[in-house]
């Protein structure tokens, strides 16, 4: 039996939270223009920006090229929240379930991008995805630099 876990990171985003949310909701295929760690995002079913759509990412993590096929499970425009449920790809070699939630909120005029990883490992020998959470922080900073020109 595997272990369940939840990792959360909230990062200040100086280029505007709406910019970040809109990028991942309507133009995830443009993320690769802002971060060299992401190579592309393809639409398999549905439409970008719509729950129920299926997309796949190609990216480099821990020095290796990887693939992630995901269902856009939930989009909550009011909360600027998107949930990506993993269907196939490299992560599913070690995890039974994997849900990535992206949430943008503003507190005291500061935009925060929050990444939440909820998962169940296939067995107790699988590491918690701490390096993946660090990867999402790096991609967030790449996007901030791209949009804000820092």
Automatic annotation (TrEMBL):
InterPro entries: Bet_v_I/MLP (IPR000916), MLP-like_ligand-binding (IPR051761), START-like_dom_sf (IPR023393)
Bet v I/Major latex protein domain span: 2-150
Gene3D superfamilies documented for this protein: 3.30.530.20
SUPFAM superfamilies: Bet v1-like
Stated name of the protein: Bet v I/Major latex protein domain-containing protein
């Amino acid at each position: 039996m595997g272990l369940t876990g939840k990792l959360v990171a909230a990062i200040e985003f100086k280029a505007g939270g709406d910019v970040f949310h809109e990028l991942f909701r309507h133009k995830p295929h443009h993320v690769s223009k802002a971060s060299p760690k992401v190579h592309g995002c393809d639409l398999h079913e549905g439409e970008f920006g719509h729950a129920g759509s299926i997309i796949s990412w190609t990216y480099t993590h821990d020095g290796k090229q990887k693939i992630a096929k995901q269902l856009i499970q939930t989009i909550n425009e009011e909360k600027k929240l998107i949930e990506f449920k993993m269907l196939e790809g490299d992560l599913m070699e070690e995890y039974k379930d994997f849900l990535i939630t992206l949430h943008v909120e503003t507190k005291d005029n500061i935009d925060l991008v929050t990444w939440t990883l909820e998962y169940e490992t296939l067995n107790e020998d699988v590491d918690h995805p701490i390096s993946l959470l660090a990867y999402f922080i790096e991609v967030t900073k790449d996007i901030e630099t791209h949009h804000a020109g820092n």
